[in-house]
Amino acid sequence: APSHTQPCHLQEPPFFPNTLLHNNLPPRQAAATALRVLQHLFHTLSANSTRQHWPSQARNDLLNKLQHHIHHLEQCLRDNAALFKGPRNPLLAINRYFRDIHLFLRAHNHSACAWDHV
């Protein structure tokens, strides 16, 4: 993550959903959940607002590795439409978590301090 030189005092960023940390998902659902997290990370880190705070080479290397793992998981999960049905859909928790991260970063102008907190 980017480094910052000034002390920063921000509210706490969103916490990763506990329901995902302690949920024993079947292997295909766990893989699809991991895929969604990687897709969100890729989207977040490839946004123009991140470029100013991340070293280019390190960011590109990370994006390339994320893309590799995303591609691999997508190949394994070609037919995953029926994996998440019912009231406890972990993908909704992931979407909400990353939406809150984007709101947190935007509220703090994507500062190095905000990135450090995230």
Automatic annotation (TrEMBL):
Gene Ontology MF, one:
cytokine activity
Cellular compartments annotated: Secreted
Q: Which InterPro entries match?
A: 4_helix_cytokine-like_core, Interferon_alpha/beta/delta
Q: Where is the signal peptide?
A: none
Please classify the protein's predominant subcellular localization into one broad category: secreted
Asked if the Swiss-Prot or TrEMBL record annotates the protein with the keyword Disulfide bond, the reply is: yes
Q: What are the transmembrane regions?
A: none
- Could you mention a single GO BP entry for this protein? defense response to virus
Q: Name one Pfam family in it.
A: Interferon
Which UniProt keywords are listed? Answer: Antiviral defense, Cytokine, Disulfide bond, Secreted, Signal
Q: SMART domains recorded for this chain?
A: IFabd
Q: Where does it sit, as one GO cellular component term?
A: extracellular space
The organism's place on the tree of life at top rank: Eukaryota
Please verify whether the record's keywords include Transmembrane helix: no
By its UniProt entry, which PROSITE patterns does this protein fall under?
INTERFERON_A_B_D (PS00252)
Which family does the UniProt entry place this protein in? Belongs to the alpha/beta interferon family.
Protein role: Has antiviral activities.
Kindly provide the name given to this protein in its UniProt entry.
IFN protein
Source organism of this protein record: Rhadina sibilatrix
